[in-house]
Design brief:
heterodimer, A: 293 residues, alpha+beta, Immunoglobulin-like, C8orf32 fold, 2 domains, 4-stranded antiparallel β-sheet, 14 strands, B: 852 residues, 3 domains, 9-stranded mixed β-sheet, 6-stranded mixed β-sheet, 27 helices, 24 strands, 44% helix, globular
């Protein structure tokens, strides 16, 4: 069991006073079969008039808060300790052929199956189209074991897309990412999800963190000082298996899950509506340190 | 209206086959509501038909015209999105009602009640345990792909029982006589208000027939709605609001009408705010808590924080307030998922499981293409089916397979195969026909009936009647408000004496005597202030144009150029809009004055024209409808038509005269009928402020014109301020500038003078609500005091001479400018302090995941 200490600080500095803001945060890590969150808390400045936690449709932890006094900046810091049981690397070749999975999942009426079926469908930011289908088809050759096909797709995205933070914004449509082959982790996750869904494979979006300081001798995962995103694929019998297209890896013990949903729009780390505010400046800092293993 | 004018003639014939039936064709492919076969009238139509026969075509035509006149006077409209001018369309009501027997209605009603209960159970399940999906009664894709399934509404939302407070269904009758449901309306059903208005109008136009036919009344439905919503309120200290998208919405008339009828506050999104986890209404006196929201805004637009991010139609945080159980929204947010026509394919089975019953009312046969077998059926039978998206979507219309070319059909099939979850195929019901009085005879038209239900603690209550709509032409297949068409009142004929009044529970609560009309929402205060201003602005414009026209029509136009153009310019500056009379080439333009005058008065697209101001007045009146007396409202509606059909300058003059009298009527009715609350206060301040500005601008013009035109000019000023008689009585001499100045500027006893207006404003301003009690004067009071003092210390003694020096002109000019500036700053200060309902709101850039 590995214990991480996670800090995710977000700050908005406004150019005009804000008399009221209302926000929704997906910032506290959820529980998963391999993960437990301890001492999770949000520190919000100025102190909110109302702050309420709940669980969303996907079982993620959500916080609604509102500040009702005029303020010039908003700072939200999420701190927690997360315990993770390292995953055994999946047996890629041992998974069923992807066509078989496609067939069985579409008719699966088990609780897990019905839950998975919603991740086959178009979602607000990911619409299937022929480009995505064509891109996926290269990896999804007949009778290939599902997880091998996914690993191949993820590797191709890693190789063929360029990490370029300036190329996209929160509102860049998926089509543009595909056309320009550039983006950030969130874009690559959306590309992978879109490709998988065109092949009839249930895929969900995972928002979380990467370990920021790594033990000696292991390669540093790049750009870990921001929040991260990857994908998870439903494979009957093996449940959900994570893949990280940005690092071409299969997460085992260095990925900390915060929330999952159909795409980014379901699990936006922090969003809000403010009155006034001018042109806000945004700063984000993330650390995820291993404190015991 | 005296009853006697409408007493139908005694029936002299035994047969119901009078002239009205002479040319009434009955189509074999459709069920006709009136005739079982050609010439054979169904029993429940015979009485009414005899009455129509007795009236005869000429009288029916007259009453049809009267229906339209009453609707127009009551301002009943329907907005058409595609109309390039954005004009509202008058509501169209047929003079012939649609008739149903009590006996048949009971069967339909039971079916509707069952369906409302069933859909409520489904809604509660989908936003709760989703047992229907897990038990295989609903395919998950049917729900999860539907944009109306709002995940943020799942689980945590406390919902009233039953889930749906309001429900409406569109019903059609198939050729075999059975009633089927075409559409379910589960989130913000429209039409109940139009149905009520139709009833009020038709019962007035056909009073004897209405009385003798023993028609079931509609009032119980609305009383139940009121008591149901009152019971939903989390506390009785809160108010109930009706949330409208605003005046651009197609059924805005109805929102205003229902809010007024039910005594709820009509609000738009930015009238509301969420604080402390509660919902509040912004009023001129501060925030007032809202307990119930009857929404006419689609649910995806009801919270820009959690739902559609671009929406300005509802305040952010509304969903959280609902979660906190501090406010109830009816119908619940998320209930749009039940409007998915794909659900219809699964209802029979769900009814069996959940209710242990068969569906009493069949739905139109429906195939949801997300199901493989259904998809195959739809593709094979596309020529016989209507193809609909499961959710209204721009660019995806409902289409009739048979009306497509082969190529269009192929494209449609491709689209369906690409997104099968998104489409249903439905059988086309050959709608039954009902008689419409068109031209001078009855004609059968396809019809659809929209029925309305409201929940009560022991189940649902259906409105006995509803809104019947017929297609615009005889072979139409699509009934929609946007496509035009005619509505009908729907009469359920009682077979026994009406006894529902003895059945209803006691009124929800006794009326407690109160003298306040509730706090005035900031937006309403704003509307009333501008209503006051526009009434005066239009009246001022009408007086200026009247004087100008009279002189244009007078052949002696010696001093025409300078004085007339000066006044038109003054009016222009005053309204901050620049007409064609000023600027480059004004002289040339005045030589073609007639044409220009027409445009300047009648061209609604030209900012600053009289028609433009009149439109603004009518809009402000519509927005303030709930605060005006019925008579004032009708007077405003009548004004709307005063400038129609003007063909010559002399007709124009007559129109202007009528307009001036009509505006005086509006002012008079407002003064005589509005309670003296804050609403009246803001309207009165607006009115006085505008009148003071108007008079000031005329005085300024008078002083600026060359001396040789003086007498004519001051006479015109007096006429434009309706003060000529007062002047003559006082001075009995030729018009002289100093005396005019005294009368129109300083004399606080002359209701047209600037001084009088400022005194009136002062008296209103002291009573304005103050958010925090403070010992010193408010900003508004200080401005008015300055203006009044300036006037009262003005010395006009030396202006009584016949010649003025430069300095005297300069002093006056500064005085006018100073007063105008103060009045305009009063308007701005009021806006800032009381009308600040619009706050600039923005979405924060959401944090994104950018790591590598």
């Amino acid at each position: 069991m590995i214990r991480y200490r996670v800090t995710h600080a977000t700050e908005y500095r406004y150019t005009a006073s804000v008399p009221q803001c209302q926000n929704e945060a997906h910032l506290l890590p959820r529980a998963t079969p391999r993960q437990k969150c301890e001492h999770g808390q949000l520190r919000i400045e100025p102190l909110p008039a109302v702050s309420q936690d709940r669980e969303d449709f996907f079982g993620n932890r959500v916080t609604y808060f509102t500040i009702q006094e005029p303020h010039a900046s908003l700072s939200v810091t999420a701190r927690s300790e997360v315990l993770i049981i390292p995953a055994a690397p999946p047996q890629l070749q041992a998974s069923p052929a992807w066509e078989e999975v496609r067939h069985s999942v579409s008719k699966d009426t088990s609780r897990a199956g019905i839950e998975a079926r919603q991740f086959l469908l178009d979602s607000p930011l990911v619409h299937s189209n022929t480009e995505l289908a064509a891109y996926a088809a290269t990896s999804f050759v007949p009778n290939r074991p599902l997880l091998e096909a996914v690993a191949d797709l993820v590797q191709r995205i890693y190789q063929e897309f360029t990490y370029e933070p300036e190329a996209t914004t929160v509102s860049t449509p998926l089509n543009e990412v595909i056309d320009h082959r550039q983006g950030v982790c969130q874009d690559f996750a959306h590309v992978a999800i879109g490709c998988l869904r065109t092949q009839g494979i249930a895929a969900r979006y995972v928002s979380g963190y990467l370990e920021t300081a790594v033990p000696d001798g292991q390669p540093q995962l790049m750009g870990a000082a921001a929040s991260h995103a990857w994908v998870s694929v439903y494979c009957p019998g093996q449940n959900w298996i994570d893949f990280d297209p940005t690092n071409n890896s299969i997460p085992t013990d260095q990925h900390i899950t915060v929330a999952w949903g159909r795409d980014y729009s379901d699990v936006t780390p922090l969003k809000g509506v403010v009155v006034g505010g001018g042109s806000p400046i945004l700063d984000v800092a993330v650390t995820a340190e291993r404190i015991s293993s | 209206m005296p009853e006697s004018t409408y007493a139908e003639a005694p029936f002299q014939r035994d047969t119901a086959r009078g002239d009205t039936l002479a040319h009434y064709p009955v189509l074999s492919a459709r069920f006709d509501e009136m005739c079982a076969s050609p010439g054979v009238v169904r029993p429940h139509w015979q009485y009414a038909l005899r009455a129509f026969d007795a009236l005869g075509p000429a009288e029916l035509s007259r009453r049809r015209d009267e229906v339209q006149q009453v609707l127009r006077e009551n301002g009943v409209t329907y907005n058409v999105y595609t109309d390039p001018q954005g004009r509202t369309r008058p509501w169209a009501l047929d003079v012939i009602p649609a008739l149903l027997t009590s006996q048949e209605w009971r069967t339909i009603e039971q079916g509707l009640i069952q369906r409302a209960e069933l859909l409520s159970l489904i809604g509660a399940d989908l936003y709760g345990s989703q047992q229907l999906i897990h038990d295989g009664l609903l395919p998950p894709e049917l729900i999860y792909t539907h944009p109306g399934f709002l995940r943020p509404c799942h689980g945590a939302l406390p919902t009233p029982a039953p889930y749906l407070c309001l429900y409406a269904a569109d019903l059609a009758r198939a050729p075999d006589g059975t009633i089927t449901v075409l559409d379910d309306r589960t989130q913000a059903p429209s039409g109940a208000g139009y149905a009520l208005e139709n009833r009020l109008v038709l019962s007035r136009i056909l009073p004897s027939l209405y009385r003798d036919a023993q028609v079931h009344r509609l009032s119980l439905f609305f009383r139940t709605l009121r008591s149901t919503l009152a019971a939903l309120a989390p506390s009785n200290q809160t108010r109930t609001t009706l949330l409208t998208p605003g005046p651009q919405n197609e059924t805005y008339f109805e929102h205003v009408y229902l809010a007024s009828y039910l005594d709820y506050t009509l609000v738009q999104g930015d009238d509301l705010t969420v604080r402390d986890g509660r919902l509040w209404l912004k009023t001129v006196g501060g925030l007032q808590q809202v307990g119930v929201v009857v929404r006419r805004v689609d649910d995806v637009f009801c919270d820009p924080l959690e739902l559609h991010r671009e929406s300005l139609l509802a305040p952010p945080g509304l969903l959280q307030a609902v979660r906190n159980n501090t406010v109830v929204v009816a119908n619940p947010l998320g209930s749009g998922v039940l409007e998915n026509p794909g659900l219809m394919a699964y209802l029979p089975q769900i009814a069996k499981v959940l209710l242990g019953q068969d569906l009493r009312l069949a739905s139109v046969p429906t195939w949801w293409c997300g199901d493989e077998q259904a998809l195959a059926y739809v593709v094979d039978h596309i020529e016989q089916l209507v193809i609909k998206p499961v959710f209204p979507h721009p660019g995806t219309a409902t289409v009739h397979g048979a009306r497509l070319s082969a190529q269009e059909r192929d494209t449609l099939i491709q689209n369906i195969r690409a997104r099968p979850h998104f489409f249903v195929g439905q059988e086309q019901v050959a709608l039954s026909t009902t008689p419409v009085f068109t031209g001078d005879h009855l004609e059968p038209r396809p019809m659809v009936l929209r029925s309305f239900l409201v929940s009560r603690d022991d189940g649902y209550v259906a409105m006995p009647g509803g809104l019947t709509r017929v297609t615009p032409d005889a072979d139409g297949w699509l009934v929609s408000g946007q496509a035009g068409g005619l509505s009908k009142d729907t009469w359920i004929l009682a077979s026994e004496p009406e006894n529902q009044f003895s059945l209803i529970p006691a009124p929800e609560h006794s009326v407690s005597i109160t003298r306040s009309g509730g706090e005035v929402p900031s937006r309403m205060a704003d509307n009333l202030f501008w209503l006051g201003r526009y009434v005066e602005r239009t009246a001022g414009g009408a007086r200026v144009f009247r004087e100008v026209l009279q002189r244009v029509l007078d052949t002696e136009t010696a001093r025409y150029d300078t004085s007339l153009s000066a006044f038109l310019s003054a009016h222009t500056h005053n309204t901050a809009t620049y007409l064609r009379f000023i600027g480059y080439g004004e002289r040339r333009r005045l030589t073609v004055a007639e044409k220009e005058l027409f445009a300047t008065i009648l061209d609604a697209d030209q900012p600053g024209s009289l028609r433009f101001h009149l439109n603004a007045l009518v809009h402000a009146g519509q927005a303030a409808r709930g605060r005006l007396s019925d008579d004032a409202w009708r007077a405003i509606n009548r004004l709307d038509h005063e400038l129609d059909q003007v063909r010559s300058l002399s007709e124009m003059l007559e129109s202007l005269e009528r307009l001036i009298i009509g505006l005086a009527a509006v002012n008079g009715l407002n003064t005589e009928s509005m309670a003296r609350g804050h609403g009246f206060r803001f309207m009165e301040i607006g009115r006085r402020l505008e009148r003071a500005l108007y008079t000031l601008s005329l005085l300024r013009t008078g002083c600026e014109l060359p001396y040789e035109t003086e007498k004519v000019v001051w006479e015109m000023v007096l006429a434009m301020t309706d003060s000529l008689m007062t002047y003559r009585r006082r001075y009995a001499s030729a018009v002289q500038a100093g005396a005019v100045l005294d009368l129109l500027l300083l004399d606080e006893s002359n209701p047209r003078s600037v001084g009088y207006q400022v005194v009136q404003i002062r008296d209103q301003v002291v009573g304005l609500p103050r958010k925090k009690p403070r010992p010193h004067r408010s900003a508004e009071e200080r401005i008015v005091l300055e203006a009044l003092t300036t006037l009262q210390v003005t010395d006009l003694e030396r202006y009584s001479t016949s010649t003025w020096d430069e300095d005297m002109y300069e002093t006056l000019s500064q005085l006018f400018a100073g007063l105008s500036t103060r009045l305009l700053s009063l308007s701005e200060t009021l806006s800032r302090d009381y009308f600040s309902h619009i706050e600039v709101q923005q979405q924060l850039t959401a944090t994104r995941s950018t790591s590598r």
